[in-house]
Amino acid sequence: MHAASRSALARCVDHLDSLLGRADSVADAAKTGTELFDCVEVLDSDRALRVAVAEASTTGGQRAQLARDVFGGKVGEITLDVLVTAAEDVWSTPKEQRAGLVELGRRAMLKAAQLDGKLEQVEQELFGLARILEREPQLTQLLVDRTAPATAKRSLLASVLYGKVTPYTEALALQAVARREHGPIEDISSLSELAAATRGKRVARVTSAAPLTADQRQALETKLGRIYGGEMVIHTETDTSLLGGMTIRVGSEVIDGSTAGKLERLKAAMA
């Protein structure tokens, strides 16, 4: 996002948090998240509307009134308040405003999970789903098929998730595959990281040659916390092809301490 959009999003996030903090209701937060996702669908289907609601040449008051005219009576009070606030502010482009509304919907849904005591579970489920998509390239390919309608992609993923995850995880995942930002794996992984951030933590994805013990996980969390200056949550998976050791990914940074990685570096040095 450009600077103007980042500032607008930050103000909208603060406003959303304030509204949901006063509501303090799982139902209100989940409803707001769902409605914001639905409103983005409306904007995606109507080019003239999505341009008008972010048009910098009109006043914030005019854009806010347009949002009230279009969505008033169709969404809850909190959702309408968020939409009006977003319309009043200045965004760099209509596309970035829509991306901001998606982010606000995700935050509302994660707030609902937090109030319901299921935020950590949602984080783990999203991480697990991203790993399933890594192991199932045929499923992933169907989800990125540009010729398939969004409804078909949602139905496909819903059939995979049915009865296996919380409603919050399902809602977040279905929205992500219907309106991709990058790829399904990357987008759902980023949702897992957003869930961790909502808990005040950063994610370290650890792939080890053998399963980590509880003591090893704790020691690694503590060490990474010192390195990155904050609480960490570790998502683990096992890959015997590493031969020994582990790889650690935090954001875009990768630490390769695996035996396979060391051998590759040794081969390169000797070539």
TrEMBL record:
* Protein localization: Cell membrane; Membrane
An annotated Gene Ontology molecular function = proton-transporting ATP synthase activity, rotational mechanism
Tell me which UniProt keywords the record has, alphabetically. ATP synthesis, Cell membrane, CF(1), Hydrogen ion transport, Ion transport, Membrane, Transport
Question: Its GO CC terms?
Answer: plasma membrane; proton-transporting ATP synthase complex
Chief location: membrane
Q: Which Pfam families match?
A: OSCP (PF00213)
Q: Which residues form a coiled coil?
A: none
| Protein's name in the database | ATP synthase subunit delta
Specify the domain of life of the species encoding this protein.
Bacteria
Q: What exactly does this protein do?
A: F(1)F(0) ATP synthase produces ATP from ADP in the presence of a proton or sodium gradient. F-type ATPases consist of two structural domains, F(1) containing the extramembraneous catalytic core and F(0) containing the membrane proton channel, linked together by a central stalk and a peripheral stalk. During catalysis, ATP synthesis in the catalytic domain of F(1) is coupled via a rotary mechanism of the central stalk subunits to proton translocation.
Keyword Ion transport part of the UniProt annotation: yes
Mode of membrane association: Peripheral membrane protein
Which family does the record assign? Answer: Belongs to the ATPase delta chain family.
Q: Which InterPro entries match?
A: ATP_synth_OSCP/delta_N_sf, ATPase_OSCP/d_CS, ATPase_OSCP/dsu
Q: Where are the transmembrane segments?
A: none
